[in-house]
């Protein structure tokens, strides 16, 4: 009988101890959420690449599309980048842009503008140019697989490159002006949707001469907005490409979304702008495309009107 009572007492003690541990764990979790409400928030500060004084680490990827940059800003962005990659015909586009800036890369006098990596199925760049750049230090990787776009394959190769050399990046900026063939535009968006599987833990952002575009995954996001974009009522939008967004909440926009559903054939948030706030937050239950105009900002940086601390 005594042994039986002792067993019951031991079991009661164990159960009591388990309950205490569970309550303690729950209490600790609540404290963490209370003390750091932004613990699960993804912060986007995409215009840091224009701040030449910031220690912001990024890679540049140039696709085979027009480089509509009329100034030397792209030269500064390239030189500050940790890795530079040109994709097939994007290599020729880069050489053409350099010539517009008075730089003849193939002369051998401007090694700082030689791509670290050149990828693609190589059907849009002359072999003679590839051989010349290879002799100047570029790593050329032919990726003939036709089941994936050159953009997708470039991110896969870039992931291998940074993993091999243990390079830490905050972001990858893919230069592609969204004009011309609609199927190419949608293929690029499709690669954005897949980017978190292609290259993990790095923000992938498409950059054109007047806009930025990327995908917000399910969860809470904070997007830092420079004052000049707010003052100029620059446009922005949230687009549910591929599937509906069943529930989305925003702050900091002129036309905020409050537990809204976004879907093509129904509501989408296009031609939106900012509500005099330096931060936009987006809480979404599904992937959604964020896109924003940057033309006033781009012009101001080029005219040296924005100081190092431009927020």
Automatic annotation (TrEMBL):
Q: Which residues form the Thiamin pyrophosphokinase thiamin-binding domain?
A: 219-288
Q: Does the keyword Ligase apply?
A: no
The answer to whether UniProt assigns keyword Transferase to this entry is yes
Which keywords belong to this entry? ATP-binding, Kinase, Nucleotide-binding, Transferase
InterPro entries per UniProt: Thi_PPkinase, Thiamin_PyroPKinase_B1-bd, TPK_B1-bd_sf, TPK_catalytic, TPK_catalytic_sf
Which Gene3D superfamilies would you find in this protein's record?
Answer: Thiamin pyrophosphokinase, catalytic domain (3.40.50.10240), Thiamin pyrophosphokinase, thiamin-binding domain (2.60.120.320)
Signal peptide feature range: none
What name does the UniProt record give this protein?
Thiamin pyrophosphokinase thiamin-binding domain-containing protein
**Organism of derivation:** Xylocopa violacea
